[in-house]
Design a protein that fits this description.
11 strands, single chain, elongated, alpha+beta, 383 residues
Length: 383
């Protein structure tokens, strides 16, 4: 009798604890839930417009949530990442077939931010979300501009995901059966008559190239006094070039020819851009002095896309910028060998599971309206 009472009491205690843990999570009531009270009405309107456009354009669901404190909710989670993943799965954000939901959540007391992605988004997008938080959202949150940070972060998420991560699988074309040699009909290709236009076209092309080259070497006359101009040497023409133009010549990205008039001291600058230069036009100073280096972040494989970061630097104005480039998945070729480095698989696993996201969660309890699930993908940041 005593054992029975103890057993019933233990079961009741477990049920009571589970009910309390489930009730500790906030309820899903809409696309924007400002439980921390940090979003002005104008920012909520901007968020609603962006979320509605995202839903119409991609069919994906974005939830924006602010909390006074996630620890005060008294859930069984021990980390911010596990709380966000479990809340995502409890709410069932996104569709069950595509798992394309996104949860953008902030906890003010703990100064935590998180972008939780549905499992339909590949893990190579975790560093993209990390950059959005650190470069766009965190600076605004440090200035206590919470509403602006949530609006800008949501817009950057919306701009990145449809362009970078098509969630829906693309149907592969069915292979066309190869007919057997015995049933293959023989096709007779009639011989083409000789056309004189081909050599004529090639001759005109060479003639135009020669004429263009000759025009560069032809003596030029001064537009003021009609005196024949003198082409200055590479050492003498630096007097008429700016510092940026001289730098372009040293980098071999642009070649400048200076034609000088000895009579009236007039000069003409001819700019010739190099065809095979490693330098491009700087968006800041507009000179051909911008170079870049690529750093692989996540290697592409046959199962996931890759990510490469391009860091660009201008040698003239010191302009710097970063660009993240998504690499397509490697195609499968059954008829040719594939050569990968010995540590390729380990690199993919290490990059996919480090730094940017937390441990996967299998908690599927609670309300699950859309059915979407997350396996811990996304990124976290402090402010």
């Amino acid at each position: 009798m005593i054992r029975t009472r103890v057993g019933v009491g233990l079961v009741s205690l477990i049920v009571s604890f589970a009910s309390t843990a489930l009730a500790a999570y906030p309820q899903k009531t809409g696309s924007i839930q400002d439980l921390a009270g940090i979003l002005p009405s104008r920012d909520q309107t901007a968020l609603m417009d962006s979320i509605a456009w995202f839903k119409r354009s991609t069919g994906a669901e974005l939830i924006v949530l602010t909390l006074p404190s996630w620890k005060d909710l008294d859930t069984p989670n021990t980390t911010w990442e596990s709380f966000s993943t479990n809340l995502f799965n409890r709410w069932g954000i996104g569709t069950k077939s595509r798992n394309d939901g996104v949860l953008f959540v902030a906890a003010i007391k703990e100064r935590k931010l998180r972008i939780e992605l549905g499992s339909g988004f590949k893990r190579c997008y975790d560093p993209v979300m990390k950059q959005i938080l650190e470069k766009q959202v965190v600076p605004l949150f440090k200035e206590a501009r919470y509403g602006a940070g949530m609006v800008l972060g949501s817009q950057k998420i919306i701009q990145s995901l449809p362009k970078l991560c098509p969630v829906a699988a693309v149907a592969k074309p069915k292979p066309v059966p190869t007919p057997s040699p015995s049933n293959t009909p023989r096709i007779m290709i009639p011989s083409q008559p000789f056309s004189p236009w081909l050599p004529i076209g090639a001759g005109l092309t060479l003639l135009g190239a020669w004429a263009g080259f000759s025009s560069l070497r032809r003596p030029k006359r001064c537009p003021n006094c009609q005196t024949v101009l003198e082409k200055l040497s590479e050492q003498a023409d630096d007097e008429y070039l700016s510092a940026a133009q001289q730098l372009e010549e040293r980098l071999s990205s642009v070649q400048y020819d200076i034609w000088h008039c000895q009579t009236c001291n007039n000069h003409e600058i001819i700019r010739r851009q190099s065809w095979f230069s490693n330098y491009s036009t700087c968006p800041s100073c507009q000179h051909q002095t911008l170079s870049g280096t690529k750093t692989p972040i996540v290697p592409a494989s046959q199962t996931q896309q890759g990510l490469t970061r391009l860091e660009r630097h201008c040698s003239h104005c010191q302009h710097q910028d970063l660009q993240d480039i998504i690499l397509p998945r490697l195609e499968r070729h059954s008829d040719r060998p594939r050569f990968y480095p010995s540590n390729f698989t380990s690199d993919v696993t290490r990059h996919s599971s480090s730094g940017f996201s937390s441990t996967a969660s299998n908690n599927r309890s609670g309300s699950n309206s859309g059915g979407g699930q997350s396996s811990g993908g996304g990124a976290s940041s402090d402010f």
